[in-house]
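Q: Structure tokens for this one, please.
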Amino acid sequence: MKIALAADHRGYHLKQEIIKKLKNNYEILDLGTNSEDSVDFPKYGIVLGETIRDKKADLGIAICGTGIGICIAANKVKDIMCAKINNIEEAKLAKQHNHANILALPGYLDSNEALNMIQTFLRTKPLEDEKYLRRINEIKEYENAN
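A: Here is the predicted structure, written as tokens:
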């Protein structure tokens, strides 16, 4: 499985820690940023979204100061379902119920806590129940029409 990661300056250190911990089990695509120098999160959220949309990676991890801004930016890309999560249960439900293909995290998380959420997300299978598929299709229909 290929995992793409993108972060702004406030997510840089957490991104680096996650890469260290995932690189032995997954193929990693690091989309930046590559330092603590101030950058704008939209660039990184959008390039991550495009990478997932274009199937250059299977799933994505987005990190900024709160996880909110980069999540919003990634969700502007067609076919992206980015979920900003705060705990393991949300990581599981984002994949099961919403078929999320990008996980957004705040840069201030402890790397072990973040890794537990990421591993849950990566290992969880999307549910194919009619009610979840119906809801996802409603979103896709709107996205395709607008």
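A few notes: The two ends are 32 Å apart (CA to CA). The chain is about 45% helix and 15% strand.
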